[in-house]
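Pasting as-is:
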Amino acid sequence: MAAKIAIWILGGMYVLAAFGVSFCFWDAFHEPEQSASTTIRNLILSWGAPFATGLAVWRSLIAQRQSEAAQKQAEIAHRGLLSDRYQRVVAMLGHDLDSMRIGGIHALVNIAREHPDEYRSEVVKLLSVYKLEEPQAKERIQATLDDALLTILGPKEGTKRLLEFDQIRLRNSMRK
């Protein structure tokens, strides 16, 4: 609010200064062959141009702030949609149908590929836990999990991780 008042005060001072200088130097601005209205028009245009320029700069700054705010809102909305997508895909892993589980695994791989900084490690952890907790899952699902981990982690790290899972399974089966 104080900034608006300051802008109005400065604008008013500018207008008063413009009219004061114009009045004091009327003879210098007014040429005898021109009418008084032409001189007044020229004075208003010459004194109004800096004011209009300032107004245009101020408006562009406001537009830039609005654009930045809209960009932030779009980013927040995008993160929300991505989070919802991730939650729905995770829910697919617990579905009764194998096709839904496999679809969920593929969707998780896509999320990890599209957003590696945000979801890669989460997806790897989730698929790793799912693979260890579902050892009795059908071969098709286990193969899809293996492919998914190899795709996300790459051949070297993925193979290493899969060997670790096999060792854990062997230890668990020996305990029983």
